[in-house]
Write a structure and sequence with these properties.
By secondary structure, the protein is α/β, with parallel strands linked by helices. It has a single domain, classed as P-loop containing nucleotide triphosphate hydrolases (Rossmann fold, 3-Layer(aba) Sandwich). It is built from nine helices and five strands, in the order βαβαααβαβαααβα. The chain has a five-stranded parallel sheet. Helix 6 packs across helix 7. The two termini are 19 Å apart.
């Protein structure tokens, strides 16, 4: 059975986590942020060390490790009763990160909508990331060089995912609005799918 899915998509600092957390509180929706799953790994575990190695440079964790970790997390949350694949729509944030991951997940995800949070002002995203680094103790957001690398990686590797899913599924949302206005636009799209 394919998982009914909504993808939250956008560059680092565009507000995916904020919107995902809100959507995850709505009955029938389950939010899974791949970055949070990675950050919650034991730093001494093999996968934890892999995550730290790549994230400290602003690079993406290899595809197989990312998809395996995500699958294991979804299975664990299904077994714990937090996610019911027959009833719930999964809201994904941070996966798939590239076209290869999208292909790997093609047999698993029934993507109903890809919500593309757009923010053309890179300086605004950098400011958001630096605030988040202080607020949430996010080391991957603290270094300006790492932030620039993450934004470059997004442009090069992640943006092609939009083409993979195509214009019928992709919905652009202006992420420079207030969080409430962004949520309002997202809910309008979700109500139609």
């Amino acid at each position: 059975m394919k998982l009914r899915t909504i993808l939250l998509f956008g560059a680092p600092g565009s507000g995916k986590g904020t919107q995902g957390k809100i959507l995850g509180t709505i009955p029938g929706y389950y939010h899974c942020a791949c970055g949070d799953v990675f950050r919650n790994l034991n730093a001494d575990s093999r996968l934890g060390r892999v995550f730290l190695e790549y994230s400290s440079r602003g690079e993406l964790v290899p595809d197989e490790a990312t998809v395996d970790l995500w699958r294991n997390n979804i299975q664990a949350n299904t077994m714990l009763g937090r996610f019911n694949p027959e009833r719930d729509t999964v809201v994904l944030d941070g996966i798939p990160r590239n076209a290869a991951q999208a292909k790997m997940l093609q047999g698993t995800l029934d993507v109903r909508a890809l919500l593309h949070l757009t923010c053309p002002d890179r300086n605004k995203m950098v400011e958001r990331l630096q605030r988040r680094a202080l607020r949430d103790n996010r080391l991957d957001d603290a270094n300006l060089d790492v932030i620039r690398t993450r934004l470059q990686v997004y442009d090069q590797e992640t943006k092609p995912v939009l083409d993979f899913y195509g214009p019928d599924v992709v919905h652009d949302i202006n992420a420079t609005q207030t969080p409430v206005e962004v949520l309002s636009d997202i809910l309008r799209v979700i109500a139609k799918v």
